[in-house]
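REQUEST ID: PR-0412
SUBMITTED BY: lab tech R.K.
PRIORITY: routine
TASK: structure prediction, single protein chain
INPUT:
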Amino acid sequence: MTNIIGDFTPFYGQHCETTATGSLLNQIDMEFSEQMLFGLGEGLGFIFWNMKTMDFPFLGGRTKPEAVTRNIAKNLNLKLEVEETASSKKAWENVKNNIDRNIAVGVKLDCYHLDYFSKKVHFAGHYVAMYGYDEDFAYLVDTKQNGAKVKTSLKSLELARNEKGPMSSKNLSYTIHGINKDYNIKEAALAAIRNNAADYLNPPIKNIGYKGVLKTSYEIKKWFKNSKNIKRDFKTTALLMEKGGTGGALFRNLYRDFLKEVYELTDIVEIDEAYKIFAETADLWTRVSALLDKTGDTQDVEYINQASVMLADISKKEKSAMELLLKIYD
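STATUS: complete
OUTPUT:
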C-alpha cells in the first residue's frame, strides 16, 4: 500500500491555501507567483470573529476558506472538484483514489493534529496538498515555514481532517483540472482586483473588511479587560497572525506584491498608488502583531492602546487603497 506521485513538483509558498492550490496547478503546468495566485483568488479581507464557544477572538486577514481556490479556478477557467463527507472511510477513499490516478489533492484540516506541528494550536482552516501515501504516512506539501515537503501519520491526518469546531469542514478535499479554455492574465487580474475591492468596501456586517479592522481597534480593549488568560490569548493571536499568517502582514505583503505585478502588466497609475498604501499597512500589521505579543508578555494595557490606534489607521488606509482600485472601473 504505497503510492507516491513521482513527478510531483511542490509549490513553495508562505500561505497554506495558495501553497496547496499552487502545488495542484503545477501538476497541470500552470505556474504563477504566490502573490498572483492570492490576487487572482481575490484573497484580501479581514474578519474579527468572536463566539461564546471560542477561547478568544480570531483575527483573519483574508477572505473565507475555500474562496481563494474557487476564485482562482473561476478567473483562470479551471474545473474545481470539491468533495466533502462525514465518513472518515469515504474521506480517505476520496484522496486515495485521486492519488492512485497520479492526481495530487488539496486537503483542508486542523493543523493541531499534524505530527510536524510543534505549536499545538487548533486551526481548522489549514490547507495542504497531498501527493502520496504508504502504510504509515501521508506525504504532504505545507508552507515553507512549516517544512514544505512533510509527512504525517495516517491516523493524525484522519483526526485533522475530521476535527470539529470553528472553520472546520467535513473532510474537505479538492482537485483542479484544466478545461482547455484560454485565459488572459491581464483581464483575469483586473477582474479579480475589481471584485476584491468591492467586497472589502461593502462588508455585509461590521466585523468584516475595513469596518472589521476598525471594530477590532476598540474590541481588543474589551477583550483585554475581560480576558481570563491574557498571556495565552494575545501571544497565541500574535503567533497566528505573524507566523501562521491568519491576520498579520503576510496577506498584505502578498496583495502588495500582486498589485506591483499587475501594475507592471498594465501601467495603471491607481494600481501603483494602492500598492504603496499596502506596503505601509503591511508594516503596520507586523507592528500590531508585535504589540499583541508584548501584551501577552507584560499584561500591560498600554500596548493594547497603541495597537488600537494603529488598527484604526490601517482601516482608513486600506479603505482608501481599495477606493483607488475601484476608480479604475468608473
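NOTES: Residues 293 and 320 are 28 Å apart (CA to CA).
REVIEWED BY: pending
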